[in-house]
């Protein structure tokens, strides 16, 4: 060696040595995982020799091997991974470190879930754990009937991943299988300009003939259960050329004016042709999704304004609004002028500024526009469905409505959740939860004081939806339980995953299609996520970072909890189909007028959520349409504004013998325009209880007194170190006269629980998931799940 070169050679040797040590460390991690795989495979052979079901272990093996492969790809392509982290605002600042650490993190998570799987299988072989065999889903033989999905003659809950591996064939078993789900669908290229594989106007030529793009719908194999989605973003240029107003009044994911006559004609042709070509196909068993996240926020300074949502309205929308007003006011322009403090000579001269100033909330002009905005969207979806039914009358439909449209206090968005659920034959939604603090929050959030995760945007709307349509199948076509733009965690707990999917299923979800899966089988991100990302929806570019695609423990647990739930599907269905004895009265009239109506309503809902029975809702329509024997009492809480029709419906309910608790003399005192009502409720043949004030605890106590004797016999006592309960639970009697009790601890602390009976008799509890007797006192960890059989 030439001494003059030593200053270069020695550092080079150090770099090679350090690199060799790093590779050796990583290969040791991989080798550790591979050794555990070998142990598990050997145990599986032993279990099978004893005729024990190892379906759960087959899935664990599959995910373990896949993520070892993925970790190696991520390690070899750090620059790509770093770039993907960089698209997410939360991770961008640490993208270099995260890209470097990700392969080891994935391998470590694989090892952890293998440790758990090996331990469980050893106990199964030893007989200390007894578990039901998995009711495997027959993806090609799903029955849709009587308000449930069935496989092998039993209720079944389906899972998959939305927008899965764009570009992969639906028949690719490496992507569509028992581990990731195998629901076929149109709309694989959901964010591309031409919207291949989605039902959209691009299949239609200007002369109203159909082009070759129609094959992207008809080529879907007729082998697996699935859904079709209408994509409303883009339009062919010929539509823009013919109709200059077509994009006026657009929204984020509806890129055209729904009142435009040309667009209605175009969609009529598209829907009729689609219905004709797909009638009776398995890909429509889970319905036609009529829209992706529709909303038309019409108020100034809302975040949607930056995406050109309702920046103005078309002449068609304005004229329809004028007609609506004329009908609402019985052609009496003087009454409108009195309400609006205006001086219009006739309804055809009425003008309105959209977006509206938020200071107008609570005034008649605000109510009229918000109610009209809801009515026009109801009319649009009713029309769209009618065009489909013209050629496919038995087609099931639903709308991917964001439950936050109901849960949040905003009401300028044009979404009447109850009415739109009535329109369609299935319940549609894309509910979300967050396993941690909102990434945009600047301080701790209120829910963190009590709970393991933010759950109310899931639970409250689901209980409302199940009250509105108890016999309809619930399709969550984009679950945001695993990640969302506002929350993601690279160390997501499998316990959280299990708890939240169990909670959603217990509350009505029949199929949960999670956001999202974007790994090609070799480990690389799908084509759509390669190169420079510049999507209309900026959230998509950052979605890969921190998602299911980087978390083996997460996706494995999704499959595992569905296997467990499907093994006990009949018990879960019995738990969720029981009577909802206590109903909270909901009025969209108050929701439109009051700034915090839904926040106030949640206070009552939350206080009742942990009392051992499902919460229900009552509305004017529910009271008119459903049997009053479905509930025992209706509670009215902080509902000042109701229409005369809503008020008379409540009075008629009392006249027929119903029971109402009114929180105070302030509720029901105003009409939709804020005018004082000169009537008050009278008890008729029923029971009317008016509380002295709006004290929530007193109101809850009175409501519980009224339903207590009609509830089940089981009593659950909880001590979690706080004044607030964290375990939500339900009870149903089984065929043997014993009780099935489901307990989910969504509280942030471990819960010390005791099960007993109202008559004081001692309880004996068996954990149905393990077959173990656990007595009548036991602990349940935060995010824990228990399904018990309870005997006296």
Number of helices: 22
β-strand amount: 5-15%
Q: From the 3D structure, determine the CATH topology of the largest domain.
A: TIM Barrel
Q: What's the architecture of the largest domain in CATH terms?
A: Alpha-Beta Barrel
Quick rundown:
With 792 residues, this protein is of the alpha/beta class.
Reconstruct the topology from this structure.
Layout: H1 6-49, H2 55-76, H3 78-86, H4 95-126, E1 143-145, E2 148-151, E3 154-155, E4 158-161, E5 184-185, H5 215-218, E6 226-229, H6 237-242, H7 261-278, E7 288-292, H8 315-328, H9 333-340, H10 364-391, E8 397-400, H11 404-407, H12 417-423, E9 427-429, H13 456-468, E10 474-479, H14 494-506, E11 509-514, H15 538-541, H16 552-567, H17 569-576, E12 582-585, H18 588-593, H19 597-608, E13 616-618, H20 620-625, E14 633-636, H21 644-655, E15 659-662, E16 687-690, H22 696-708, E17 714-719, E18 727-733, E19 739-745, E20 751-757, E21 764-767, E22 772-775, E23 777-780, E24 785-791
Parallel strand pairs: 4-11, 5-6, 6-7, 7-8, 9-10, 10-11, 12-13, 12-14, 14-15, 15-16
Antiparallel strand pairs: 1-2, 2-3, 17-20, 18-19, 19-24, 20-23, 21-22, 21-24
Helix pairs in contact: 1-2, 1-4, 2-4, 2-16, 3-4, 7-10, 14-16
Organism: Flagellimonas algicola
GO molecular function: hydrolase activity
Protein name: Glycoside hydrolase family 42
């Amino acid at each position: 060696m030439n001494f003059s070169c030593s200053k270069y050679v020695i550092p080079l040797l150090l770099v090679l040595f350090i690199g060799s040590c790093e590779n050796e460390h990583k290969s040791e991690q991989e080798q550790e995982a591979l050794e555990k795989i070998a142990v598990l495979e050997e145990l599986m052979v032993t279990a099978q020799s004893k005729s024990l079901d190892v379906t759960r272990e087959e899935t664990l093996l599959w995910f373990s091997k896949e993520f070892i492969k993925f970790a190696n790809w991520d390690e070899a392509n750090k620059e790509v991974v770093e770039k993907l982290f960089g698209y997410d605002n939360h991770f961008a600042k640490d993208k270099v470190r995260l890209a470097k650490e990700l392969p080891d993190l994935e391998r470590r998570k694989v090892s952890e879930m293998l440790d758990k799987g090996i331990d469980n299988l050893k106990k199964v072989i030893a007989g200390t754990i007894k578990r039901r065999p998995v009711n495997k889903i027959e993806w090609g033989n799903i029955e849709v009937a009587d308000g449930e999905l069935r496989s092998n003659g039993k209720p079944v809950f389906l899972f998959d991943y939305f927008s899965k591996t764009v570009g992969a064939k639906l028949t690719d078993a490496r992507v569509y299988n028992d581990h990731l789900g195998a629901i076929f669908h149109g709309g694989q290229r959901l964010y591309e300009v031409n919207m291949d594989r989605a039902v959209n106007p691009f299949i239609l030529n200007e002369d109203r003939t159909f082009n070759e793009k129609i094959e992207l719908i008809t080529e879907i194999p007729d082998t697996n259960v699935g859904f079709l989605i209408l994509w409303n973003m883009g339009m062919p240029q010929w539509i823009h050329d013919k109709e200059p107003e077509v994009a006026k009044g657009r929204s984020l994911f509806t890129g055209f004016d729904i009142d435009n006559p040309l667009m209605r004609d175009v969609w009529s042709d598209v829907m009729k042709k689609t219905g004709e070509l797909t009638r009776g196909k398995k890909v429509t068993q889970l319905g036609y999704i009529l829209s992706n996240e529709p909303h038309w926020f019409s108020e100034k300074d809302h975040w949607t304004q930056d995406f050109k949502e309702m920046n103005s309205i078309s002449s068609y929308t304005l004229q329809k609004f004028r007609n609506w007003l004329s009908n609402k006011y019985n052609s009496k322009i003087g009454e409108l002028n009195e309400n609006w403090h205006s001086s219009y000579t006739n309804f055809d001269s009425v003008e309105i500024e959209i977006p509206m100033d938020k200071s107008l909330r609570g005034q008649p002009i605000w109510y009229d526009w918000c109610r009209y905005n809801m009515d026009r969207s109801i009319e649009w979806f009713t029309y769209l469905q009618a065009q489909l039914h013209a050629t496919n009358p038995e087609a099931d439909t639903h709308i991917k409505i964001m439950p936050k449209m109901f849960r949040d206090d905003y009401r300028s968005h044009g979404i009447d959740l109850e009415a739109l659920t009535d329109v369609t034959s299935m319940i549609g939604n894309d509910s979300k939860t967050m396993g941690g603090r909102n990434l945009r929050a600047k301080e701790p959030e209120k829910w963190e004081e009590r709970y393991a995760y933010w759950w109310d945007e899931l639970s409250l709307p689901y209980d409302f939806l199940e009250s509105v349509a108890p016999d309809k199948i619930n399709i969550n076509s984009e679950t945001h339980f695993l990640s969302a733009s506002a929350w993601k965690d690279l160390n997501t707990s499998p316990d959280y995953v299990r708890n939240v999917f169990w909670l959603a299923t217990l509350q009505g979800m029949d199929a949960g299609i999670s956001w999202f899966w974007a790994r090609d089988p070799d480990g690389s991100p799908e084509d759509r996520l390669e190169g420079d990302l510049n999507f209309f929806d900026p959230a998509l570019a950052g979605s890969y970072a921190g998602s299911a695609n980087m978390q083996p423990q997460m996706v494995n647990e999704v499959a595992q909890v569905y296997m467990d739930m499907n093994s006990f599907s009949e018990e879960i269905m019995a738990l969720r189909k029981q009577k909802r004895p206590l109903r909270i009265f909901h009025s969209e009239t108050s929701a439109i007028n009051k700034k915090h109506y839904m926040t106030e309503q949640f206070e009552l809902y939350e206080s009742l959520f942990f009392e051992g029975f499902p919460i229900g809702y009552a509305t004017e329509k529910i009271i008119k349409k459903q049997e009053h024997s479905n509930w025992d009492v209706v509670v009215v809480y902080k509902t000042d504004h109701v229409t005369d029709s809503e008020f008379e419906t409540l009075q008629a309910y009392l006249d027929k013998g119903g029971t109402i608790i009114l929180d105070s003399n302030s509720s029901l005192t105003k009409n939709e325009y804020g005018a004082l009502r000169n009537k008050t409720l009278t008890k008729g043949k029923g029971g009317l209880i008016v509380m002295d004030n709006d004290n929530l605890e007193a109101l809850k106590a009175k409501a519980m007194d009224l339903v207590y004797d009609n509830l089940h016999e089981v009593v659950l006592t909880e001590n979690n170190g706080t004044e607030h309960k964290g375990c939500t639970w339900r009870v149903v009697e089984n065929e043997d006269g014993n009780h099935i009790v489901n307990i989910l601890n969504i509280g942030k602390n471990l819960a010390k629980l005791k099960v007993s009976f109202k008559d004081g008799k001692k309880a004996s509890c068996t954990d149905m998931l393990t077959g173990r007797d656990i007595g009548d006192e036991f602990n349940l960890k935060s995010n824990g799940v228990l399904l018990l059989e309870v005997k006296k």
